[in-house]
Amino acid sequence: MELSFSILIISVLSLFIILKLFRRNEKLNLPPGPWKLPIIGNLHQLARYELPHRGLADLAKQYGPLMHLRLGEVCTIVVSSPDYAKEITTTHDLVFASRPHVPAAQILSYDFSDIAFAPYGPYWRTLKKICVTELLGVKRVQSFRSIREEEVTNLVDWIGSKAGSVVNLTEKVFLLMCSITSRAAFGKKNEDIEAFQAVVSEATEMFAGSSIADLYPSIKFLLALTGVKAKMQRMHNKTDKILSKIVEDHKKRRAMRSKSGKKEEVEDLVDVLLKAQEDGNLEFPLNTKNVKAVVMDVFSAGTETSATTVDWAMSLLMKYPKIMKKAQDEVREVFNRRGKVDEAGLEEMKYLKLAIKETLRIHPSAPMLFPRECAETCNINGYDIPAKAQVLVNVWAMTRDSKYWTEPESFIPERFLDSPIDFKGANFEFLPFGAGRRMCPGMTYANANIELPLAMFLYHFDWKLPNGMKNEDLDMTEGFGVTVKRKQNLCLIPTPYNPPAVA
Length: 503
Ligand code: HEM
Hints:
This protein is of the alpha+beta class and 503 residues long. The chain has 18 helices and nine strands. It has one domain: CATH 1.10.630.10. The radius of gyration is 24 Å and the shape is globular. The structure holds protoporphyrin IX containing FE. Protoporphyrin IX containing FE is lined by residues 89, 115-116, 128, 136, 297-298, 301-302, 305-306, 309, 365-366, 369-370, 432-435, 438-442, 445-446.
C-alpha cells in the first residue's frame, strides 16, 4: 500500500516536471547537450565525476563550449570558451546579472540580502558600490597593513618554533586568513570567531553538495524534508547571535565616540558598513540585517578562497623546486637589500606575482564562478538561452585548454612575463575573479592577503616534504567543495633561513 502510494506520488511529480519543462522549452533552439533522462536530466552523466568542473569540461569536449544540460529540473547552460564567457559576463551582462535562487542559501544569506546572492537591482548596486569604493577598495586594504604584518609575523614565529618538524600549513594558513579578516572586520580578535568561522565553513561545504532541494526548487517542501532547512536554521542562529552582538557593540562604541567628538583611528569593516547605514544618500537604505549579511559574505567568500590560493601556490612551488628557488632568490634579494621584511617590499617581487597569477590559472578557487541566472530569453550565436536558466562559466576548463595556453597543465609563471593577460576581467580565457558587474569585489584585499604570507614563508624558511617524499610525488588532487581546495592538507618541514643582516 505504502509502496504504491510512493509510486503514485513519484509518477505525478514526474509528469508535472516533464510537462513543465516541455512547455517552457517548446520553441527554443537550445544549445547542444547530452540526452536527458526524465526527472534527473543529466545528473547520471555527472555522477561518475568527483569534481563537477572536470565532469562538465569533459562533456563540453563532446557537446561544445555552449552546452545545455538539465540538472534535476534546473535548466543549466555551461560556458567553456572565452568568446561565450565574454557574451555572458560583458556583452549581455545585464541579462545575466542576477544569481539563481539557491534554496539552501536563503537562510544564511539573510533572505538573499548579501552581495553574492542578492538579485540585480538598486539594493545589490548599493552594496556593491559600498564594497568596491569603501569596504574593499585600495585605501581600506592599505589601512589593514599592520594587521596583516602582525598576523603573518606571529605565524612565522610559530613556524620557526617548529623548525625541523612537520607543520600542517593548510590548517595554519586558513587560521591566518580568519585572524586577519576577523581583525579587519571587527577591529579585534573576537573570542567567538573560531565558532563563527567553523559554522561558515560548514555552510560553505553544504552549498557545494547541491542539495536535492536546489535541484528541484519548485518542490518547496524538499528543503524541510531533507533536513537542510533545519540545519541551515541552526547554523544561522549561531552566526546571527555572534554577529548581532558584534554589531551592537560597535553601535554603542560609535555612539560614545560621537558624543565625545572622537574619531575612530582605524575603521574596521563593521564601522564602514554602519557609517554607510547612517548615510542618508544611499540609492537604497540599509538596515542592520543587511550589514550582517555583508559581513557574512566577507567571511564566506573571502577567507577560504585566499587561503586556498596560498596553499596551492606553496604546493606548486614545492612540486617545481627550480621555480621555488627563483621565487625565493627574488624574495630574499629584495628583503635583504631593503633591510626590512615588510609589505613595502612586495611591489618589487615581480616573479612572486607571476607565480601567484599562474597558481590562479591552474587552481582558480571558484572554478565555475558563482552561478548566474538568465533574466529573459536571450539569443547567443543563434542559440536561445531560456529565461531562468542557470549559467555556469567553467573558468577551469578554459585555463586548462591547449587552444589558449601552451602546456596548460604545467606550472610556468614565465608565461605571464611581458604578457598583457591579467585576471582583472578583460581576458576571458583567464577569469579567476570573474568579470562584469558580478565580478569579485575582493580582488585587492585577497591579493594583499596572499602575497605577504607567501613572501614571508619563502623568505624565512627552506621547506621540504615529510617522510623523504620527493617533490615530484607531492599529491595535487583537488577536493570537492565550493572552493576547490587540496584534497590532502599540505604538510611541510620548515628549516629557518639565516639572513646576512636584516633589521
Ligand atoms: C583568491 C581569492 C578570491 C577569489 C579567487 C575569488 C573569486 C570570486 C569569484 C569567481 C566570484 C564570482 C564572480 C562572478 O560571478 O563573475 C566572486 C564573487 C565575490 N567575491 Fe570573491 N574571490 C576571492 C576573494 C574574495 C575576498 C577576499 C572577498 C571579500 C573580502 C570576496 C568577496 C566576494 C563577493 C562579495 C562576491 C560576490 C559579488 C557579486 O555577486 O556581485 N572575494 N569571487
